Amino acid sequence: MDGLRISNANRFIENAGSLSNSDALPSGNGVGEGQKTFADTLKDTISKVNELQLDSDHKIQQLATGKTDDVAAVMISTEKAEIALRTMVQVRNKIIDAYQEIMRMQV
């Protein structure tokens, strides 16, 4: 898989969390106290998917080295990680589609 390569993507994510109500968001729909921004939610989700992948890798390694014989738990962990990754890829595709649609809009 080639992956997503957007120049200055980190800067975009970091700046997304710094918007205030008066910058771009309509009043009443802003990020209030205790609410996460889209960038924070995205970072947390990617982190959770990564944790599932690492857990799956660890269980596969334990099975391969003979430290465990619970094949069912290894398979369940692997499937959870695969489903989470596929879901993240679909979310990424939707984000790219939305970005491309916005870039096609005429101002």
Compile the SSE list and pairings:
Elements: H1 9-16, H2 38-65, H3 71-104
Helix pairs in contact: 2-3
Please provide a brief summary of the model:
The protein is mainly α. It has a domain at 39-107.
What would you say this structure looks like, in words?
The chain has a domain at 39-107. With 107 residues, it is mainly α. α2 packs antiparallel against α3 (71-104). The model is unreliable at 1-6 and 16-27 (pLDDT under 50). It has helices at 9-16, 38-65, 71-104.
Low-confidence stretches: 1-6, 16-27
Could you tell me the mean pLDDT?
80
Radius of gyration: 19 Å
Which sequence of SSEs, written as H and E, runs from N to C?
HHH
- Biggest pleated sheet: none
Q: What class do helices, strands and sheet pairing give?
A: mainly alpha
Number of helices: 3
Percent helix among the residues?
Answer: 55-70%
Bin the strand percentage: under 5%
How far the N terminus sits from the C terminus, by CA atoms, comes to: 34 Å
- Give the strand tally: 0
Shape: elongated
Salient structural properties:
107 residues; mainly alpha; disordered N terminus
